[in-house]
Specification:
Layout lengths: L1 H17 L3 H12 L4 H7 L6 H40 L18 H15 L3 E2 L8 E3 H4 L18 E2 L6 E3 L5 H9 L4 E10 L11 E11 L4 H16 L5 E8 L2 E10 L16 E10 L1 H6 L8 E8 H9 L6 H4 L2 H4 L5
Parallel strand pairs: 1-5
Antiparallel strand pairs: 2-4, 3-4, 5-6, 6-10, 7-8, 8-9, 9-10
The chain binds phenylalanine.
The site of phenylalanine (PHE) has 10 residues, from strand 9 and strand 10.
Length: 346
């Protein structure tokens, strides 16, 4: 039995040293050291020996078992390290390889302009009206009648309107001014809001006109509001939007829902007022329509014009963007050509 134990020590040591993986080392451990292993079967037979032999063989069996356990432990650490190194080597990432190219989205230039203008008016105390007060599919009643367009009056021809088949008198709105009506029906003064959105006009498309474009409507109603307040706000807006103090000009104009009405021009950004193609030689560029809210409009929404007054304005987002970046064709905004869009980085 002693010989057998010594043989086990020799064989097992050899097998441990030859083990090439954590797995095969574990097989060796099972073969010699587990409950059904070779050492244990010797220990089981100790009972057949004399007391003297029991002691000698038993202690030798324990020594062999301890030795083998130590050997296995060391070998196991060694193999684990080798296997880990191999795994790390295989999974190594080459950070010098070129990465996947992913196109990055950008904010559309019109959205950028809207965001910029909203921020300017936020700073001037205006909030953006809730979108349910500003639907794109609108009734003639809100888009025209409530805004003091007389029925069948040629003023309706100022804006060529798209009619729908949803119901008679349901249209695609031709202006954002209807939002004024919905806002005032839902909110008593003081009112101080803006509303950006899409509008539609049945016109032939050209470099200057598209049948879908964007406006930003503004409305302020309170006690003691005068034309001077309107001028102050709009001049400040233009100063902030065009970056420097650019001369502005208020021209008398006509809208059914404002009285008095004005169109606001800024000095031409191309020629500085000398006159060029962009401004048709006038030195001025029209940027928005505005005026004091007509007493009839206030009455239509149940606001007493003897107590309250207000002003409204509407501006074209495409036009303001074209003027700021010297863009000469409105259709560029809608073609989604990346060569154009990529020039507008945030
Ligand atoms: N809605 C007008 C237009 O589309 C602009 C405007 C808005 C004028 C508000 C006066 C007041 O031309």
């Amino acid at each position: 039995m002693k010989d057998k134990l010594e043989q086990i020590l020799v064989d097992a040591t050899k097998e441990i040293n030859n083990a090439e993986s954590v797995q095969s080392l574990d097989d060796v451990r099972l073969k010699y050291l587990s409950r059904k292993g070779e050492l244990n079967s010797i220990k089981k037979n100790l009972k057949d020996l004399s007391d003297e032999d029991k002691r000698i063989v038993g202690s030798l069996a324990n020594t062999v078992s301890n030795q083998l356990e130590d050997l296995i432990k060391n070998k196991s650490e060694e193999l684990y390290k080798i296997e880990l190194d191999k795994k790390l080597e295989n999974e190594k990432i080459d950070i010098t390889l070129p990465s996947d190219f992913r196109m990055q989205g950008r904010v559309h230039p019109l959205t950028q302009t809207i965001n910029e203008i909203v921020e300017i008016f936020n700073g001037l105390g205006f909030s953006v009206m809730a979108s349910e007060n500003s639907p794109e599919v609108e009734t003639e009643y809100i888009n025209f009648d409530m805004l003091n367009f007389p029925p069948n009056h040629p003023a309706k021809d100022m804006q060529d309107t798209f009619y729908t088949k949803v119901a008679p008198n349901v249209i695609l709105r031709s202006q954002t001014s209807g939002a004024q009506i919905r806002q005032m029906l839902n909110q008593k003064p003081p009112v101080r809001v803006i509303s950006p959105g899409r509008v539609y006009r049945c016109e032939s498309v050209s470099a200057r006109k598209n049948n879908l474009f964007h406006q930003i409507e503004g409305l302020l109603v309170d006690k003691d509001i005068t034309f001077a307040d309107l001028k102050g706000i709009l001049n400040e807006f233009i100063r902030l939007y065009f970056g420097s103090s650019r001369p502005t000009r208020f021209r008398a104009s006509y809208f059914p829902f404002t009285e008095p009405s004005a169109e606001v021009d800024v000095q031409c950004i191309m020629c500085g007022g000398k006159g060029c193609r962009t401004c048709s030689g006038t030195g001025w560029l029209e940027v928005l329509g505005a005026g004091m809210v007509h007493a009839n409009v206030l009455r239509n929404v149940g606001i007493d014009p003897e107590i309250y007054s207000g002003f409204a304005f509407g501006m074209g987002v495409e036009r303001l963007t074209m003027l700021k970046y010297a863009i000469n064709d409105i259709r560029l905004f809608f073609n989604n050509d990346n060569r154009f869009l990529n020039q507008f980085r945030l």
